[in-house]
UniProtKB/TrEMBL annotation:
<feature type="region of interest" description="Disordered">
    <location>
        <begin position="1"/>
        <end position="39"/>
    </location>
</feature>
<dbReference type="InterPro" id="IPR055346">
    <property type="entry name" value="Fe-S_cluster_assembly_SufBD"/>
</dbReference>
<protein>
    <submittedName>
        <fullName>Fe-S cluster assembly protein SufD</fullName>
    </submittedName>
</protein>
<dbReference type="GO" id="GO:0016226">
    <property type="term" value="P:iron-sulfur cluster assembly"/>
</dbReference>
<dbReference type="InterPro" id="IPR000825">
    <property type="entry name" value="SUF_FeS_clus_asmbl_SufBD_core"/>
</dbReference>
<feature type="domain" description="SUF system FeS cluster assembly SufBD core">
    <location>
        <begin position="142"/>
        <end position="366"/>
    </location>
</feature>
<dbReference type="Pfam" id="PF01458">
    <property type="entry name" value="SUFBD_core"/>
</dbReference>
<dbReference type="InterPro" id="IPR011542">
    <property type="entry name" value="SUF_FeS_clus_asmbl_SufD"/>
</dbReference>
<comment type="similarity">
    <text>Belongs to the iron-sulfur cluster assembly SufBD family.</text>
</comment>
<dbReference type="InterPro" id="IPR037284">
    <property type="entry name" value="SUF_FeS_clus_asmbl_SufBD_sf"/>
</dbReference>
Length: 405
């Protein structure tokens, strides 16, 4: 595919836009990185990002022959179960069926990764055990690009987990196709080492009667930017978008979320929660919801909540809602950032709980609402441990000993 597929006459470079782009639906797309240029930090989709630390991902360079890969993919178990599909070349369907790069990083990842990792749930079948793709970075100096296709065939049911660990400079596209009547859960876990740089664009479409639960969980990494875009295209399509982040000193964790209600009687729910501790901890959440002119009977709500645990942190939270039809069931948005609830702390302390433990219980209670929505026991347990580790680190306590350690 080439940029001509996306009406290049309408494109504006990120560096010098002809006019300010006010809404998410207006953003230009292209498969050619040259159509975007390197971000400066003034562009609407980059103004809250750390472009300095993300800069290695803005370079469009071909990998030298013999260079070792930046990411090791552990997908043998997926192949053995018959859920991995060969996808060779940019034109291998269904790659590119709905994916359109919205920025230079995504366009480079498309261009420099000719083959896709394609996971497919069989039509009419339920895959009971979660499908886990473990993506391990091989070094902070290693660069990697990826295109991943997750396809739920009609009537299928299953959960796909993308688990990121290690370190790398990683640009990633994830294309999610939920066919008619399918029920799919996609969980992206960013459990990177402290020096990883990761930018990912997730784009999904949900057909008639389909359901997508999409989750972004970010703990590790230096800079992590995971931007999900979900189009509820079919009649009574449903989408639930959840996110959880815990930013430590110096970390930048970001998600720009887009939910487009296109079909009739669609339902959407967006809930992202974050905690921040340590000087320089930064979280960015931008939530854009568009209810299209034909999306009658839509019911949609988005909310972002951030809990600040120490001084020197910053949380940006920007909800946006566009409604192009008056015939809807409901729509709303909310955002809140604040410190501990003194009444909750007082209540726990009045029951004989020490202040530090009371604070820990409040944070765990705040974040566990998202953790419990995952539905995969292994991941839920690991995240509960990770939350506890983060809190103990912030309090200067030794890590708790794991059972069996």
């Amino acid at each position: 595919m080439t940029a001509t597929d996306t009406t290049p006459a309408a494109l504006r470079t990120e560096a010098e836009p002809a006019r300010p782009i006010q809404t998410r639906s207006e953003r230009p797309t292209s498969f050619d990185p040259a159509d975007f240029g390197a971000p400066t930090g003034r562009e609407v989709n980059w103004k809250l990002s750390d472009v300095r630390r993300l800069a290695p991902l803005f370079v469009d360079e071909e990998t030298e022959a013999g260079d070792e890969p930046g990411i090791a993919y552990d997908v043998d178990g997926i192949a053995e179960r018959g859920l991995l599909v060969e996808s060779t070349g940019h034109d291998a369907a269904p790659r590119g069926e709905i994916f359109r790069p919205e920025d230079v990083v995504s366009a480079i990842a498309w261009k420099r990764c000719p083959n896709a990792l394609h996971i497919r749930l069989p039509e009419g079948q339920e895959v009971a055990e979660p499908i886990v793709a473990r993506l391990h970075g091989l070094g902070a100096d290693r660069h990697a690009n990826a295109h991943i296709v997750i396809e739920a065939q009609p009537g299928s049911i299953g959960t796909v987990v993308l688990h990121h660990s290690g370190s790398a400079r990683y640009a990633q596209n994830v294309e999610i196709l939920v066919r008619a009547g399918a029920r799919l859960t996609v969980i992206s876990v960013q459990d990177w080492d402290d020096d990883a740089v990761h930018a990912s664009a997730h784009q999904a479409v949900v057909a008639d009667g389909g359901y997508l639960k999409h989750m972004v969980v970010s703990f590790g990494g230096d800079v992590v930017r995971v931007n999900p875009s979900v189009r509820l295209a079919g009649h009574r399509a449903e989408g639930e978008l959840y996110g959880l982040s815990f930013a430590d000193a110096g970390q930048h964790l970001e998600s720009q979320v887009y939910l487009f209600h296109e079909g009739v009687e669609t339902r959407g729910d967006v809930l992202y929660k974050g905690a921040l501790q340590g000087t320089g901890a930064r979280s960015v959440w931008i939530g854009d919801v568009l209810i299209g002119s034909g999306a009658t009977g839509t019911d949609s709500y988005e909310k972002n909540q951030n809990l600040v645990l120490s001084d020197g942190t910053r949380a940006d939270s920007i909800p946006n809602l566009e409604i192009e039809t008056g015939d809807i069931a409901g729509a709303g948005h909310a955002s809140a950032t604040g410190r501990f609830d003194d009444e909750q702390l007082f209540y726990l302390q009045s029951r004989g709980i020490e202040e530090e433990e009371a604070r820990r219980l409040v944070v765990i209670g705040f974040l566990m609402e998202i953790v419990q929505k995952i539905g995969v026991a292994e991941i839920e347990e690991r995240l509960a441990e990770a939350i506890d580790e983060e809190l103990r680190r912030g309090a200067g306590l030794a890590p708790a000993t794991r059972a069996g350690a």
